[in-house]
């Protein structure tokens, strides 16, 4: 059944007058629309019930630098910059941004489309100025939220929204890696997460993963060997082994051991995968960590950035029957943790200077006021400036975690 077929008038009784519950109509249309038809469903209902003149959906590309229209595939409309546009302003701030056209008597509202902190894109609605008030503003924000959830569900059944995210063709390895990721950002009252991989369209073996429960957050940061398909296959094997162990309720050391056995059993020690595996207690801020290789952890506390030195253990798959042990540390409300791959801290400038402690500390300080969802992109931009015209020789991955704790 097509979404617009659900444009039924839903009414309720208020003081003897029949009023239209507009938001409920839009919500029902979105939930009943075909996966590829969400934009048409929201466009039809907003036109009928909110007097919208135009409705457009823009999604962020993999590099998080441009917004692309969903209904102009393949690439028949110009992309919009995240940094220098009104939709980009709403996307960065994650707040509705309103443009007023007094001559035309109209307003254009740019609304963030996000799911639990994961930024997907922007819903742009243009409507008459006299049809826009505080109630309409709140309802349109709710519409954008419902649309985001429906897009996530629809991606199981259609490639439309994933196609719109592409400013260029992905390599097969990059396709495999992106499909493995949980998202690019996530938020709960206790924490906020943001992450990014570069180069977005030709990544190799770096990866991140997270999972949350009522009481814990588990975070994995991996750095695999090799290039292309081989690196992607190694990462897929390790991540799925870790997920399998985590979902079986195993402890952190046992999760690492199972993944180690899976990698060694397949490759017999010829390749290995570096990993940071962490588990945070949402109530207390106590954390367990296993440092099995090259990803590094930094902390910013009360304005001071410092590297967190951990006890190095063997990467996954290097030897048979490796045993792992956890270390413990404590995070406090207000702490920011940064996790970086060797494709970040080992990058050299044209003069040969490594992007290590001094440059990384400076970058953490300069981005301290940004939300975690924007920190990785900003730091990778600075990293590109440090590298200069030299092409990247490795993946660069940054994961940012802000810890709020429970009151």
* Estimated structural class: alpha+beta
**Gyration radius over CA:** 23 Å
Would you state the CATH class of the largest domain? Alpha Beta
Helix content: 25-40%
- Tell how many strands the DSSP assignment holds: 19
CATH-defined architecture of the largest domain: 4-Layer Sandwich
SS element count, helices? 11
Strand order of the largest sheet: 5-4-3-8-7-6
Give an overview of the whole structure.
This protein is an alpha+beta fold. It has 2 domains: 22-164, 2-Layer Sandwich (Beta-Lactamase); 170-403, Phosphatase 2c, domain 1. It has 11 helices and 19 strands. It has helices at 22-32, 38-50, 86-93, 134-154, 160-164, 172-180, 228-247, 252-267, 342-345, 357-366, 375-387, and strands spanning 11-14, 17-20, 54-60, 66-69, 80-81, 97-101, 106-115, 118-128, 185-188, 191-198, 206-212, 216-224, 273-281, 286-292, 296-301, 304-307, 327-330, 336-340, 396-403. The protein has a 6-stranded antiparallel β-sheet. A hairpin with a 2-residue loop joins strand 1 (11-14) and strand 2 (17-20). Helix 7 (228-247) packs antiparallel against helix 8 (252-267).
List the helices and strands and how they pair.
Elements: E1 11-14, E2 17-20, H1 22-32, H2 38-50, E3 54-60, E4 66-69, E5 80-81, H3 86-93, E6 97-101, E7 106-115, E8 118-128, H4 134-154, H5 160-164, H6 172-180, E9 185-188, E10 191-198, E11 206-212, E12 216-224, H7 228-247, H8 252-267, E13 273-281, E14 286-292, E15 296-301, E16 304-307, E17 327-330, E18 336-340, H9 342-345, H10 357-366, H11 375-387, E19 396-403
Antiparallel strand pairs: 1-2, 3-4, 3-8, 4-5, 6-7, 7-8, 9-10, 10-19, 11-12, 12-13, 13-14, 14-17, 15-16, 15-18, 18-19
GO molecular function: phosphatase activity
InterPro entries: Bact_Sigma-Reg, PPM-type-like_dom_sf, PPM-type_phosphatase-like_dom
Domain PPM-type phosphatase: 190-403
